[in-house]
């Protein structure tokens, strides 16, 4: 005999919208506390929910919220992340400038990115709305949504911040990392250059996701010259500014720093989240893999900034990462055999990372609503 909760789950398939609305609204709390009620009859409730993202906006709001929470379950995550028809509808809806649930779709996609094979769906293409000015590749459309969301100029009800977590997970994979450092034909822009400008954004979510994305892309060692090139990605200032405050440096140190790091305002504050600072330091560690990278950091006086970060940020993870970076920057390059050792040291320096560049620990968490 069905329980009351199972009967309530059954009502999400009611032909009456008022009943579907009541059922989905009341089921939201159970999507976190009792997710197994949605797994009965071979995931039949989940199949119904996937169809209901096309329902009336208020019903769809509850439905997407339930799916966000249910995606913490591995079996349900697979069901969602491998359903091509469902994903096609999610991608269609999220790019609509009038979509009321666009932010919820961003959270859902951030969770679906935890499924490794999800990377393949980003090869999908669809015709973008005229307002988006993007190309047919879904991944590029999501990147452009993310950029426009920062100013609220595309969809007044969405900032698309959680897409940064999706990018962080996708860049675990080499083919996606390569996409982010290749100039795109439709706009002539390197995707990473669209993201780097948000390392000092007001949104904690956006800063954290972008920091993790940059770090994962930095696992692509052959692309490091692009990271340092002023004509390509030129990433250093975007990594160093978040970890600088209003401290003063010796004139000789200041004059050698990057122009953006000189004469900072007296009210300049470093990022308030130590985990983000740690991520940026670990990215610098990865960029120390090559001799050219280390030499460039010495040339522009990265060491004094790391020294002050170590002193002023009272966090064990930050301080440990700073100490590893200092060891690489201050050592004698003349010592034989150090190049190969440094490559191995830099790649293994970031806790929780693999050669396929696992995402940051914070971003591995499933988003719940």
From TrEMBL:
<feature type="domain" description="Protein HGH1 N-terminal">
    <location>
        <begin position="94"/>
        <end position="278"/>
    </location>
</feature>
<comment type="similarity">
    <text>Belongs to the HGH1 family.</text>
</comment>
<feature type="compositionally biased region" description="Basic and acidic residues">
    <location>
        <begin position="333"/>
        <end position="346"/>
    </location>
</feature>
<dbReference type="Pfam" id="PF04064">
    <property type="entry name" value="DUF384"/>
</dbReference>
<feature type="region of interest" description="Disordered">
    <location>
        <begin position="333"/>
        <end position="369"/>
    </location>
</feature>
<feature type="domain" description="Protein HGH1 C-terminal">
    <location>
        <begin position="283"/>
        <end position="336"/>
    </location>
</feature>
<dbReference type="InterPro" id="IPR007206">
    <property type="entry name" value="Protein_HGH1_C"/>
</dbReference>
<dbReference type="Pfam" id="PF04063">
    <property type="entry name" value="DUF383"/>
</dbReference>
<feature type="compositionally biased region" description="Acidic residues">
    <location>
        <begin position="355"/>
        <end position="369"/>
    </location>
</feature>
<dbReference type="InterPro" id="IPR007205">
    <property type="entry name" value="Protein_HGH1_N"/>
</dbReference>
<dbReference type="InterPro" id="IPR016024">
    <property type="entry name" value="ARM-type_fold"/>
</dbReference>
<protein>
    <submittedName>
        <fullName>Protein hgh1</fullName>
    </submittedName>
</protein>
<dbReference type="InterPro" id="IPR039717">
    <property type="entry name" value="Hgh1"/>
</dbReference>
């Amino acid at each position: 005999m069905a329980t009351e909760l199972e009967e309530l789950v059954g009502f999400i398939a009611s032909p009456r919208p008022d009943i579907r609305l009541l059922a989905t609204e009341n089921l939201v709390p159970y999507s976190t506390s009792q997710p197994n009620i949605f797994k009965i009859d071979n995931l039949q409730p989940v199949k119904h929910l996937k169809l209901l993202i096309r329902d009336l906006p208020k019903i769809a709001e509850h439905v997407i919220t339930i799916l966000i929470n249910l995606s913490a379950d591995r079996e349900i995550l697979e069901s969602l992340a491998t359903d091509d028809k469902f994903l096609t509808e999610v991608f269609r809806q999220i790019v609509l400038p009038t979509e009321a649930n666009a932010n919820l779709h961003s959270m859902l996609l951030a969770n679906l990115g935890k499924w490794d094979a999800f990377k393949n769906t980003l090869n999908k293409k669809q015709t973008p709305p005229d307002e988006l000015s993007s190309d047919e590749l879904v991944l590029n459309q999501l990147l452009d949504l993310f950029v426009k969301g920062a100013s609220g100029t595309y969809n007044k009800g969405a900032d698309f911040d959680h897409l940064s977590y999706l990018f962080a997970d996708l860049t675990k994979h080499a083919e996606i990392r390569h996409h982010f450092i290749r100039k795109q034909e439709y706009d002539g822009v390197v995707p990473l250059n669209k993201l780097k400008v948000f390392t000092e954004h007001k949104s904690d979510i956006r800063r954290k996701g972008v920091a993790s994305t940059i770090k994962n892309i930095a696992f692509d060692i052959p692309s490091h010259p692009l990271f340092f090139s002023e004509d390509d990605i030129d990433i250093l200032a975007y990594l160093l500014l978040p970890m600088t405050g209003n401290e003063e440096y010796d004139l000789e140190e200041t004059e050698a720093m990057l122009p953006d790091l000189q004469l900072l305002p007296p009210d300049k504050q470093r990022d308030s989240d130590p985990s983000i600072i740690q991520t940026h330091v670990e990215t610098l560690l990865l960029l120390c893999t090559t001799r050219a990278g280390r030499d460039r950091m010495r040339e522009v006086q990265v060491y004094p900034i790391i020294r002050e970060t170590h002193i002023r940020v009272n966090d064990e993870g930050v301080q440990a990462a700073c100490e590893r970076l200092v060891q690489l920057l201050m050592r004698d390059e003349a010592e034989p055999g150090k190049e190969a050792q440094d490559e191995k040291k830099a790649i293994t320096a970031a806790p929780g990372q693999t050669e396929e560049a696992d995402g940051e620990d914070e971003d591995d968490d499933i988003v719940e609503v």
